[in-house]
Batch of 4 targets.
Target 1
Amino acid sequence: MTHRMDQRFAALAQEGRPALVTYFMAGDPDYAASLDIMRALPGAGADIIELGMPFSDPMADGPAIQAAGLRALKGGQTLAKTLQMARDFRHQDNETPIVMMGYYNPIYIYGVERFLSDAVSAGIDGMIVVDLPPEMDDELCIPALEKGISFIRLATPTTDDARLPKVLSNTSGFVYYVSMTGITGSALPDTGKVAAAVDRIKAHTDLPVCVGFGVKTEDHARAIGASADGVVVGTAIVNAIAHSLDADGAATPATKAGVCDLIRSLANGVHNARLAAVE
């Protein structure tokens, strides 16, 4: 069983700061450029990597991540290649936790047993499968846990105290608090409400609570990180990639550089989050 996630959160707790959790779409805009970005993330300040699995019908995602998925699929990205990307990353980095994030359909088609076996060998630490509710834990969640892969669940502002225990029942790694209703990439939520929601979730679990949806800048990361155990950034990273591509949709020298500049800025916000809270 891998314990990279637990080790990372324990180390960050010692440092007294939240994690920076960075999402990008595997294969966007192509395999080589995407792997190059992934390899650069930890050095720029990412603590945990969320590796997006491209899917043709991403119902919970906003336009930016939908477009990234379509670019990746057009470039030939598959679930097998996404697992290979993690495997290639692990040749250089065996410490940064990797969480695969996406939808159940590609995993179901790939085959659950085969997928979990390949995920373990590729060095995957956790999964977020947004369209599998707790009532379907036997499908993937329980088999994943048995393989030592954390199954990370989403909680939202509409997840009340009656529902939370069910949502948290087989959750491990961390809890992902979606700080607003709606699709990814929306406006920044009210930080006071986020802090109250984090406290409410923590009353039900000892797991770290990471907050995402709407974080785009260093100031956002600092504000959210004051109360959360982790700050999740996705759409802003995906947009940085999209805005750096040439007229043909290909990566440019500005692609990795732009993402790294953004990550460094976000990491600075996260590193100073608790200092801001003390002040």
Note: The beta strands are 19-25, 48-52, 98-102, 126-129, 150-151, 154-155, 175-178, 209-212, 230-233.
Target 2
Amino acid sequence: MDFLSLVKKSRSYRSFDESKPVSREILEKLIECARFAPTGVNLQELKFYLSNTPETNAIIQPMTRWAGKIKDKYTLPPKGHMPAAFIIILVDTSIMPDPEKAKTDVGIAAQTILLAAASMNLGGCMIGTFDRSVSKALSLPETLSPALVIALGTPDEEIILEDKTGSVDYYRDENGVHRVPKRTRGELIVG
């Protein structure tokens, strides 16, 4: 698969086939990819909490908020279609005291993880809106500040990318298909 196809395949999925687990081995392979991603001045301040058991997933899932642009029944994964795994990206404040300064590194790591997941026929969703007390609920050390949650699993929904004709807000059509308007290349290139 060429790289552009991989990027297009790496979408924000919000419905998963719960019958297909994500193994600890796969999660560790995703972290291995993120481990080699660049970080500012090579600080390597990120840590990763891996969850693929019903017990820990049940702690994390209710602490997340999904699909901020959609205000109806599609805001959470439907019952029976929850993610099989989560990765919480954490900033180690003993390395970088101000977690806000790690935003770029968090984004690079998250995108690397999702592209690697797509290459393994998995899908995910970056979730920035979540209850920060998730670290306490999981008994994580106080020096680990949660920055982003990534939900992972085998997607069981269709996502269609389309050229923007009006708003860039993503939406569900009358058939429940997730549609994502994208600005055209001509709108993006300056000069």
Note: Helices lie at 3-9, 24-35, 54-60, 103-119, 134-137, 185-188.
Target 3
Amino acid sequence: MRKATKTAALVLAMTMAVSALTACGSGADKTTGADVTGTENAEAAAGTETADTGAADSAEAADNAAAVTKTEGVLTFGTNAEFPPFEFVAASGVIDQYDGIDIAIAKQIAEENGMTAAIENMEFDSLLIALENGQIDAAIAGMTVTEDRKKSADFSIPYYTATQVMIVKEDSDIAAAADMADKKICVVQGYTGEICVQDMGYSYEAFKKGTEAIMELVNGKCDVVVIDSATAQKYVNDNEGLKIVEDASAFESEEYAIAVKKGNTALLDMLNTAIETKLADGTISELGAKYTEEITAE
């Protein structure tokens, strides 16, 4: 899933092919004795084909338009509100009780396209399944684009670049990813941290919520939690005695994007247009700075 670096990293510097059919008229290569009837038939056939192609294109456009959202006028985003500062539950959120960078982006995109944004909160691992089932229109959850996830969904252009870090106790001897080899590691199920630890060949315990993994660390039941850096900062701020350990050589940067159901080109185009605008005018950078500063200030 997810990843983030520092506030500076919040500034991202972040198809449909239409086939044409060609008709062949009879006698087209003759230079004498042209068959007028054949020519008329060929022209009629060509005209019919053009009309059919136009009708097909119109029908395809109509299908795409209908596929934008499951409920007319409402853009339903799936998220996992356990990932501050991107999505979390608040006393007074941007959309109902939900707040965060992603939630603010979701609301703006919907409203700028004349729609109302709605949030479906669920486990992270359920988001792509919910997309396939039509339960949600899009998933915005600090979701990292991976080749495996591309098999299940289409992704917007990236709007955020992030990385993984390790959260340990202040007296921990873990100074690099290699030091986790003989340690008890906790991750969040489905998050990029889990994928990274798997790739390193280490054993680990996965939890459904980041807070659960952090409590294991706080209570001395594990040695390290691997998670996205922006979220790690929130947990370190909230729990005394913890610190963040970075290892750029072990954890590569990754990109967050919004996922839509495969083939929903109309919605994908709409999202891409909105994201491009928000990256260009600094909106996403401002939201990142705002929410990160709030975390730091707590």
Note: Residues 1-46, 57-66 have pLDDT under 50 and may be disordered.
Target 4
Amino acid sequence: MLKDNLYSETLYGTYGQHFTVDQVLFEAGTEHQHLVIFENREFGRMMALDGVIQTTERDEFIYHEMLTHVPLFSHGNARRVLIIGGGDGGMLREVLKHKTVEHVTMVEIDGAVVEMCEKWLPNHSAGAYQDPRLNLVITDGVKFVNDAQACADGSFDVIISDCTDPIGPGEVLFSSEFYAGCKRLLSENGIFVAQNGVCFMQLGEVETTTARLGHYMADTWFYSAAVPTYVGGIMTFAWGAKNPASRNIALDVLTERFRSAGIATCYYTPTIHQAAFALPRYVEEAITKVNG
């Protein structure tokens, strides 16, 4: 991974990317995974887990805005939000920009990720960890969503799974057990979204998520965004909603919700929100293959 001032990503065995390393800021094996944070003159500070780039200072806004604002503006009045993963703090930062949000529970399996990202990637969280609306829980996400004593049924309006790829600690966050727990925790009009990989390289993840998540949600689909760091094409985000109408909010309604929220964005717009649900034919065919 780190050799001769280069960081080489290991997500794919036959294809990849590398970054020059100007300075290693932190590197260690945590209780759960290998964590490294380094500087690159093109992308700024970068964080990787187990050989896979997770986030960079330069383009994190695309990923975090799309995985946050699409479900929250689709819902329109989300008051309680659950974030699974997201230890770098970027998702939390964007969620807390919504004035309707009264409480956020964030469940991260690796406390070292939170600690080191708050220290070395402070612009990601931008003080969000000090917000009184936050309840930070360091535990396994699957265990949390299936623990009836931790949260009652219908506790959250939006659930965001800011997970790593389905390898290592992130693998269980693509399981039927996890989706079942999320369904239990969603309110009547609740929405679930999750990172679902670069579809051109990881089309099998689209098929697996369709089969598993579709068993629990009234509406299952995907939306996309182009994030330069995630090499191989557009990234897909899984979408699951209890109310199928949530995916088809009129543009004028989205525009008014966005205007009223007063949130400044660098990528998200109501128009991009709507367009993001239009998928390439090969992704649609993968979904149809599963659904029949």
Note: The first strand starts at residue 2 and ends at 3.
